[in-house]
Specification:
Elements: E1 2-5, H1 8-11, E2 17-26, E3 28-36, E4 47-54, E5 61-69, H2 73-86, E6 92-99, E7 105-114, H3 128-137, E8 139-140, E9 143-144, H4 145-159, H5 164-181
Antiparallel strand pairs: 1-5, 2-5, 3-4, 6-7, 8-9
Length: 182
């Protein structure tokens, strides 16, 4: 069983895995459209975390890490149970192929969790500056929302894969926080 992570699963999977590969899924774009009311925000002041949105551009791809679950069938079932709890606000499950930098298929049928407009915490698109301001000012039980963004951006840099929208949002959040300090 393979699971594809494109957000916090990249840097903090919190489950046992035998193998992992850096790769991308095609036809999707990573976006900060999912509200977080239990980790990076509160019900009164939701944070924003990533989800995927379909993108028909020929070059549309989202980079992340595919993890092959470790252990016996029971241990893998326990890992999936943990993921179901962790990703409880992500209401769509899809099986996707994961591709390498040369376009070769690395993994067929990896499970990915997606938050759709049908879930209760879906916030949807907004102006990048509005999203940046929300991320800069949101804080939940797992810490500041900006830490979520920074860890993801740093992980992608370490992986050597670009996400220009993510890096631009990171810049906007840093600017927002700098203005708040003045």
């Amino acid at each position: 069983i393979w699971v594809f992570g494109y957000g916090s699963l990249i840097h903090t999977p919190n489950f046992q895995y035998d193998k992992h590969v850096i790769g991308c899924i095609k036809g999707y774009r990573r976006v900060f459209w999912q509200g977080s009311t239990d980790h990076r925000g509160t019900p009164e002041r939701p944070g924003r975390t990533v989800t995927l949105t379909a993108d028909n551009e020929a070059t549309a791809a989202t980079w992340g890490i595919a993890f092959q679950l470790a252990g016996t069938a029971e241990e893998q079932a326990a890992a999936l149970s943990y993921l179901e709890w962790r990703e409880k606000e992500y209401d769509v499950r899809k099986l996707v192929d994961v591709y390498g930098k040369d376009g070769e298929v690395l993994v067929r049928g990896a499970l990915v969790y997606i938050a759709s407009p049908n879930n209760r915490n879906y916030l949807g698109p907004a102006d990048p500056r509005v999203i940046a301001a929300q991320i800069a000012t949101s804080h939940g039980p797992s810490g500041p929302n900006c830490d979520y963004l920074y860890k993801l951006a740093d992980a992608l840099r370490v992986m050597g894969v670009p996400d220009l929208d993510l890096f631009m949002l990171e810049k906007l959040v840093r600017e927002e926080l700098s203005q708040q300090e003045e």
